[in-house]
Amino acid sequence: MTALTQIPWTELTFAAAVFAVMLTFYILYRAAERSKRTLIMSNLEQLNLLRMLLADFQRHRGLSAGLISGDQSLREDLTRVRARIDQSIEQAQKLDTRHPNDWKALIAQWRALRADQNRDADSNMQAHHQLIRDTIFLIEDIASEVDLSCGRDELSYLICIWHEVVQTAEWSGQARALGTGIAASRSSSAAQRVRLRFLHQKITHLSRAAFGTLQSSFASKERLLHCQRAVDGFLHCIEQELLGIDNPSIEAKRYFDQATGAINELLALVDAALNELHQLHGKQR
């Protein structure tokens, strides 16, 4: 008699059932892991695109503000940015996303803004503010939908990236747009100076909070230092060139470029975080 026939059938049946249950749980676990990985990669793709759109929406706001205020030298740059946004929007329409309505709303807002090129300065600014605000909300929603860090302590700084760093870039973008308009018209109203002073304070407060957090956890201290210097330089420019004198003499393009340098450094921190996440998840199988 073989060893198999010596084992009671009840034990064989129980063992088979246990194996079937374990196999089922393993299959479900693997399916859940694949689903999570697919979601993470999709969200990273969307965050990359949103980061590009955020930068270009902000740039479009600043250039259009300067153009409306009379500086025609900005028209060519504005045309290039508009074309780049159109390309990104075309890419957005092909996304496989869990946020289709939010994306459709962004695309609709951009198309409406693009189609109406006869807005006055205030309505142009407000339309851009709303578009960029919704872009940032979508960045925050997608970044928090799943744990992109996979619980790694060294990536705990990501929360600061999606909030303080992105918000600092946006306050800086608003200061760029407002200041470019002031520089183009070579004058400012009391309301504009109050608003610019408010933006200066917001940039100062948020950037200090961000740099304080990132100092202990962000991998590239050199990149962080470059960013801090660029933001401080921009704040000094606002103080000296726009808030410190009644009739600004700084050229609109020069001011725009100074602001852009600071914003680019802030967004480079976002890029570094996204690159680290791509490396992390690219190694996982």
From TrEMBL:
Transmembrane residue ranges: 12-29
Q: Where does the record place the Nitrate/nitrite sensing protein domain?
A: 54-277
Q: Which domain of life is it from?
A: Bacteria
InterPro entries from the UniProt entry: Nitrate/nitrite_sensing
Arranged from A to Z, the UniProt key words for this protein are: Membrane, Transmembrane, Transmembrane helix
Identification of the protein by name = Membrane-associated methyl-accepting chemotaxis protein with HAMP domain
